[in-house]
């Protein structure tokens, strides 16, 4: 099914339904960064890398960083392009190749923003993600029809302010859904 501008999921959260069996996506919240006829791309916002910090990434890239880099978490953005960095961030938005997602949220992955974050002068609100989630043309629409995902508009507080372990539940609750009452089985008439 072709995706037009009117039914794009860009700027939406994609929440995994309880029946999701793919371990890459179980109880995840994915911020959809792009969705068009060519497919879809998003970043998982509630999977923190268990050991990696931003300092290790900056050191590997030979980018000087402040001591604060030790406390900047790295997120597992998804199972695609796992060796690439993606920065989900709030203002400012003047970075090279910055892709606006909503009026208050953008995606960047160019050296200027990475160097600014390392030096302590990047956007105050940001997530550093390794990898992304991706779907080919029509794949995501098919998965939604199969009851794998729920969608709701992005709210920036869930990206940056809600504790990581509560983001899936908070996104569901924002929709008015009690996650405990959800079934993983699809209903077809």
Number of domains: 1
Uncertain spans, ≥5 residues at pLDDT below 50?
1-6
The helicity comes to 10-25%
Give me the oligomer status: single chain
Order of helices and strands: EEEEHEEEEHEHEHH
Secondary structure category: alpha+beta
- N-to-C span: 20 Å
At CATH level 2, the architecture is 3-Layer(aba) Sandwich
The share of residues in extended strands comes to 25-35%
Instruction: Write the CATH fold name.
Output: VC0467-like
Largest sheet: 10 strands, mixed
Q: Averaging pLDDT over every residue, what do you get?
A: 91
In total, the number of strands is: 10
Q: For this structure, what is the CATH class?
A: Alpha Beta
CATH homologous superfamily, by name? VC0467-like
Instruction: Sum up the overall morphology in one term.
Output: globular
Describe this structure in words.
This protein has 189 residues and is α+β, with helices and mostly antiparallel strands. It has a single domain (5-177), classed as VC0467-like (3-Layer(aba) Sandwich). 19% of the residues lie in helices and 33% in strands. The chain has 5 helices and 10 strands; from the N terminus they run ββββαββββαβαβαα. The chain has helices at 54-60, 111-118, 139-145, 156-160, 167-174, and strands at 12-16, 29-36, 39-44, 48-53, 73-76, 80-89, 99-102, 105-108, 126-135, 149-153. Strands 1, 2, 3, 4, 5, 6, 7, 8, 9 and 10 form a 10-stranded mixed sheet that branches. The longest helix is centred in the middle third of the chain and has 8 residues, at 111-118. It is globular, with a radius of gyration of 17 Å. It starts with 11 loop residues before the first strand and ends in a 15-residue tail after the last helix.
């Amino acid at each position: 099914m072709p995706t037009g501008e009117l039914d794009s999921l860009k700027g939406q959260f994609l929440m995994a339904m309880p029946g999701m069996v793919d371990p890459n996506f179980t109880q995840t919240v994915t911020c959809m960064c792009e969705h068009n006829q060519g497919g879809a791309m998003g970043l998982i916002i509630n999977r923190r890398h268990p050991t990696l910090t931003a300092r290790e990434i900056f050191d590997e890239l030979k980018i000087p960083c402040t001591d604060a880099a030790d406390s900047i978490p790295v997120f597992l953005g998804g199972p695609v392009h796992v060796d690439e960095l993606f920065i989900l961030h709030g203002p400012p938005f003047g970075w090279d190749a910055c892709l606006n997602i909503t009026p208050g949220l953008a995606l960047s992955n160019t050296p200027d923003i990475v160097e600014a974050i390392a030096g302590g002068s990047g956007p105050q609100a940001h997530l550093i993600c390794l990898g992304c989630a991706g779907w080919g043309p029509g794949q995501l629409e098919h998965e939604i029809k199969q009851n794998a995902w729920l969608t709701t508009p992005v709210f920036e507080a869930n990206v940056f302010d809600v504790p990581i372990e509560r983001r899936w539940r908070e996104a569901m609750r924002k929709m008015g859904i009690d996650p405990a009452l959800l079934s993983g089985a699809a209903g077809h008439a």
